[in-house]
Amino acid sequence: MSLDQLDLDPYYLAKIFTQPIIPGKSVPVAAPQIEVPKVKYLGENQKNVALFIQNENEAYLNDELFNLLTNILNACKLGMQDVSLMNTAPYPQLEYTSWQAAVKIEKAIIFGAASASLGLTDAPLYQLLTVNSTTLLLSDDLQMIGTDKVLKAKLWAGLKQLLGI
């Protein structure tokens, strides 16, 4: 058999020649940059506590639900300057890890249907969950919590665990 008839598989050639055959400059390939999305939120996020809601009808919350949320935050000794209130409705393609890249989050409370849009559908409600070194608390929708004392008690128990109250 002559060398003219030799047929080598390209895979094996690549294994044999890990370095360039012809000397020259090798240019390192830059790692692709992950684009951090620009997201809007309400609050100053001074304590890196994120609040996720999903509301297609309004920018954030109506007055009644905003008052309920403010009362919950006051009970936890927090204010709007300490948290970031984010509506997931304008960003249906973003998963939770993308939100983490966009906003500094140490603890998060996810209300209602927002958990599904963040890719956290199978997580249990009112139990602490850790995702990418962030502690999460999933709860029912604020509207349901406002009308049900049992859900308020479950949320309060979860908030005490999450925030160390």
What does this structure look like?
This protein is of the alpha/beta class and 165 residues long. Helix content is 32%, strand content 15%. It is built from six helices and five strands; from the N terminus they run αβαβαβαββαα. A five-stranded mixed β-sheet has the order 2-1-3-5-4, covered by helices on one side. The termini are far apart. The mean pLDDT is 83.
Order of helices and strands: HEHEHEHEEHH
The percentage helix is 25-40%
How would a textbook summarize the main sheet?
Answer: 5 strands, mixed
Q: Strand share of the residues?
A: 15-25%
The low-pLDDT segments are none
Structural class, from helix and strand content? alpha/beta
Mean residue pLDDT? 83
| Gross geometry | elongated
What's the Cα radius of gyration? 25 Å
Number of strands: 5
- Head-to-tail CA distance between termini: 81 Å
Strand order of the largest sheet: 2-1-3-5-4
Count the DSSP helices.
6
What topology emerges from the helices and strands here?
Blueprint: H1 10-16, E1 49-53, H2 63-75, E2 83-87, H3 96-102, E3 107-111, H4 114-117, E4 128-131, E5 134-139, H5 142-147, H6 149-163
Parallel strand pairs: 1-2, 1-3, 3-5
Antiparallel strand pairs: 4-5
